[in-house]
Amino acid sequence: MHHVILGAGPAGVIAADNLRKHDANANITIIGDEDEPPYSRMAIPYLLAGQIGEEGTYLRQDKGHYKNHGIDVKRVRAGAVDPKNKSITLEDGSDVAYDRLLLATGASAIRPPVEGLDLPGVHNCWTMADARAILERADKGDDVVLMGAGFIGSIILEALVKRGVKLVVVEMEDRMVPRMMDETAGAMLKRWCEDKGVRVLTGTQIKGIAESRDGLDVALSSGKSLPARLVVVAAGVASNIGFLKGSGIDTDAGVKVDGFLRTSAPDVYAAGDVAQARDMSTGEFSVLAIQPVAADHGRIAALNMAGHETPHKGSLNMNVLATIGLVTSSFGAWEGVKGGTSARMCDDNAYRYLRLEFDGDRLAGAQAVGLTDHIGIARGLIQTKLRLGRWKDILMTSPERLAEAYVATSQGIAPV
Ligand SMILES: Cc1cc2nc3c(=O)[nH]c(=O)nc-3n(C[C@H](O)[C@H](O)[C@H](O)COP(=O)(O)OP(=O)(O)OC[C@H]3O[C@@H](n4cnc5c(N)ncnc54)[C@H](O)[C@@H]3O)c2cc1C
Among residues of the chain, what percentage have pLDDT more than 90? Predict the structure, then answer.
């Protein structure tokens, strides 16, 4: 049995380790197109902040890990997949035959159609190569413009602040983290960043970037412009599915999979940022491009590939950010569900906010600013779909009693 895994990120590496655990005699090959040992993108901000070196980003710290586990790691790009002949064509011209194939090719950063994005000094922050390029131009006091204040942009923001650069964040939507949190939370996060000395321009677009005498000149939709030594582009990501064109494997935003992470082709599975799998909050199939989902997919896909039928019941959409010391988080259906009810607690001055979304007497979604003790509880309540009974009515007026409600409900204690 030859298991081939395309993509050497967390989904691929976790799948390989699980395959070895459940199929001691199989041949396992990981094929990844980056010229690095398998690493975690999630660790890049710590590399930028100087908290770790490159080796700290590696997914397996033991240098002999892959060899010792009989996992062959090839560094080459896969150009095409032929499910009829169970074969992959690599860009070095060779072919690899598989018995079972996992597509774990992740996602890539989007380059929006803005003039000047190909200039030196303009970089995404998605790969190790991007991180190295950013490090060359992000020294203390350097003018840096960050395009996009979404989840990834806000993570990079924190790392750039730690480097001591003069940072301006430009976000075209009306608030920070618009696909993660509501207006109240987004505005609170913006005010927090500005209090810490970061300029945040929301409702503003970057119209173009040009070279100037001192570096780069960033033209804004407001008619103004910003000087920059470095522009970091964090404008969203898209699943890496282009190489599957003509393969007959069904794709949409990502690779379509069923409740066992099987694609439309026999013996081909998908996991991680490339997979369009079940979202447990909505029941729909969508791409949830976060590392816990990639890890979960990798493990479940491997079990299925090894012949242990294991359903994927759905992943939870969750985002947790620490931005210059302020923790923000959102879980599940944070915008609410049709016919549901919602409760809010807001203390603007203290940077504290909690919004709970209910479906009947079950918690369906949540978002929080400045409240770390609610993170695990909100996640647990949403995942277990625990019925809150009369505690739900109490939470409608006192959402901050979430922890109390969770403990009591788990033990079957009704409120008095
Ligand atoms: C700066 C940054 C910070 C992040 N922080 C967080 C965080 O705090 N929390 C969180 O949950 N998530 C975070 N993420 C997102 C997280 O890193 C991804 O969700 C995760 O990496 C997905 O894992 P994956 O294995 O599916 O894909 P990837 O890690 O993208 O790995 C896929 C690999 O496949 C390769 N590949 C693509 N096409 C081919 C091909 N044709 N042939 C061979 N190889 C190919 C890619 O180059 C890549 O090496 C962050 C991402 C970045 C960039």
Answer: 94
Tens of pLDDT, residue by residue over 286-342, are 999 999 999 999 999 999 999 999 999 999 999 999 999 999 999 999 999 999 999
Q: Tell me, what's the pLDDT at 215?
A: 95
Determine phi and psi for 56, rounding to 5 degrees.
-65, -15
Residue 232 Cβ inside 6 Å of ligand 1? The answer reads: no
Per-residue confidence at 206, pLDDT binned at 50, 70, 90? very high
* Dihedral sign (CA 38, 41, 42, 46): positive
pTM above 0.85?
A: yes
Taking the CA of residue 8 as reference, the ligand 1 atom at the shortest distance is 33
Burial pattern 208-234, b for ≥16 Cβ within 10 A else e, equals ebeeeeebbbbbbeeeebbebbbbbbb
Q: Which domains does the chain have, with CATH numbers?
A: 2-108+237-305 (3.50.50.60), 122-233 (3.50.50.60), 325-410 (3.30.390.30)
Instruction: Tell which residue, 167, 237, 173, 238, has the closest CA to residue 205.
Output: 173
In angstroms, the CA 24 to CA 347 distance is: 55
For residue 95, pLDDT beyond 80: yes
Ligand 1 contacts CB of residue 28 (under 6 A): no
How long, in residues, is the chain?
416
Residue 10: which H helix or E strand, with range?
helix 10-22
Q: Is 226 left (phi over 0), alpha (psi -120 to 50) or beta?
A: beta
Counting from 1 in the atom list of ligand 1, the atom nearest the Cα of 10 is 25
**CB contact at 8 A, 167 and 157:** yes
pLDDT range class, residue 181, cuts 50, 70, 90 = very high
Residue 45 phi, psi (nearest 5): -60, -35
